[in-house]
Write a structure and sequence with these properties.
The protein has 312 residues and is of the alpha/beta class. The chain has helices spanning 8-22, 28-47, 70-80, 121-127, 145-157, 181-188, 211-227, 232-238, 240-245, 279-295, 299-310, and strands at residues 57-63, 83-90, 108-112, 133-137, 141-142, 163-164, 166-170, 189-194, 198-199, 202-203, 206-210, 253-254, 261-262. The chain has a single domain, classed as Spore Coat Polysaccharide Biosynthesis Protein SpsA, Chain A, CATH 3.90.550. Mean pLDDT is 85; it is low at 1-9 and 296-301.
Length: 312
């Protein structure tokens, strides 16, 4: 049935039972808490009434392993009232994404890619539109309509930089040798910066950006691929958020928009790109190489700052 158009009720039940399976290992109280938040999220897609923004966005949603989540994310974007166009791009050749999107709204466009281009494709898709403002949300993050709206408003207020809700900081450890994967995981990053109004080194999972940011992201990617064609797969699949985060006129802004609802499989190695064995060390080395010329003098200071804040 994967290649047939499914009825909306079948799509919703499919996502629900998939989430039931993913939460089987949760403690009862955590499972209950998740589903309360999940049903609140679904309800918000019907009840939320967003005011109009002065500019509309093209929203780009990528689908690969979590295609059952996409339809509800589309509905949340529609409820936020920020979009003039929603592009759902599917990198999974085993399914047809239109079969998993219940909305018939004409602004929703479903694309099945001929190959797995990786997350970098979101910026190429953005460059092919006439929009000036964009948002992209990963398929393991269930943003409420009001959170989507506020994130869009944040970009319109300060369009020089990338905006999001979840980020990470790099720990710049002075070293002549690249970090091993174990070292990168242990001390290379400060992860999961959320529910804070702050600047971050790298924005993850949700991105509000402008056309100029997409253009700069593509430029960084193309330059690296020309220099190191053998690394193209890593650049396209493991690094797009790094390129995007470096495309603004300053560090990305992380917004505190309240508690974030995550898909239970967001950290599963079988579904998350971050489950790759070389993910952390490759990204640490890449970020340091891309920023060394402008930030080398900050290494010792940032290293001391990390231990003062997180090692006490």
């Amino acid at each position: 049935m994967s290649d047939q158009i499914k009825r909306p009720g079948i799509i919703q039940r499919s996502q629900f039972w998939d989430l039931v399976q993913q939460t089987r290992a949760f403690e009862s109280k955590h499972r209950l808490r998740f589903f309360r938040a999940y049903f609140s999220w679904l309800s918000s897609q019907v009840t939320y009434r967003a005011p109009s923004l002065p500019e509309k966005f093209t929203v780009i949603l990528l689908s690969f392993r979590r295609y059952r989540n996409i339809s509800a994310i589309v509905d949340a974007v529609l409820a936020s009232n920020i979009a003039s166009e929603i592009i759902v791009s599917n990198n999974n050749k085993d399914i047809r994404i239109k079969s998993w999107v219940k909305s018939k709204d004409p602004i929703v466009k479903c694309l099945d890619q001929t190959e797995d281009y990786g997350p970098i494709i979101r910026y190429f898709l953005a460059s092919q539109t006439s929009s000036d403002y964009f948002m992209s949300i990963d398929d393991d993050l269930f943003l409420f309509p009001h959170q989507i709206y506020e994130l869009a408003r944040g970009l319109l207020t300060e369009p020089q930089v990338i905006h999001g809700v979840w980020g990470q900081d790099i720990v710049r450890i002075p070293s002549l040798e690249p970090l091993t994967e174990e070292q990168a995981i242990a001390k290379g990053w400060i992860y999961q910066i959320e529910q804070r109004d702050c600047r971050v080194d790298i924005m993850n999972r949700a991105y509000a950006f402008c056309r100029s940011h997409a253009k700069k992201t593509i430029s960084i990617y193309d330059d690296l691929v020309r220099q190191h064609p053998e690394q193209k797969q890593k650049y396209s699949h493991l690094s797009d958020d790094i390129f995007m985060s470096l495309s603004g006129e300053g560090k990305p802004i992380c917004h505190n928009l309240g508690a974030l609802l995550n898909c239970p499989s967001s950290n599963l190695p079988t579904k998350a790109i971050s489950g790759s064995e070389i993910f952390h060390s490759f990204r640490h080395d890449l970020y340091c190489r891309l920023t060394t010329s402008s930030e080398s003098l900050k290494l010792t200071r940032d290293f001391a700052k990390y231990f003062l804040k997180f090692s006490a």
